[in-house]
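Following up on my earlier thread - several people asked me to post the actual chain instead of describing it. Fair enough. Here it is, all 199 residues.
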Amino acid sequence: MHSSQLIKVIRAKGGAIRQKTADIMDIFDQTVDINLRRECVLKALTIFLGEDADDLIKEYLDSGADDAQRDMKQLTMAVFVIRKKGEGLQQPPEDIGIVIEGMEVLHELTSFASACALLLGLIYALNLAYPKPLRFTFEVLQKVIMQLDQHKMSPKVHNLYSKLQNSQQRNTTMYSTSGPTNCPVPYCERTMVFETYSM
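Reply from S.P.:
Thanks for posting it. Predicted structure:
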């Protein structure tokens, strides 16, 4: 499997970010499951941007369904994952879905990455504002990964964009250029973060 420019930039960060992403990076290195690797990339990205991955993904046990339903009614916007009791990240979840304004709008999705891609699409289609605790994460997904409305970026996101460009320039011979040449995340790498999903 090809390595990710995004992961390289995240790994280069030291201090508290490296500590907070250490367990996620260990899972990324140890698994060959593409869906789990994508999940690790998205979680690490959120932390790298100074946001809380727990605001993006809400994980519940199937044995606590009632508690999960009550909690989800309080959510503004999130991806939820329901796992069987005793099972870890290596096992497929019982369910993956999306909550918007306390309502479960999608469920039985194929992966966490699919759910994030669809959530981004719903935000776009419904003209919703990004949730404030995750505004930088969604801005990166929109403007850097998906290359939508790139003309204006926040300083934090532009800084990441520049780092990705510099990283790509040092490693251009490693990647296929089958996608747009001006994107700092090569086409093959974008498919690693977001798998293709048709509604």
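Residues 15-30 form the longest helix (16 residues). That should answer part of your original question.
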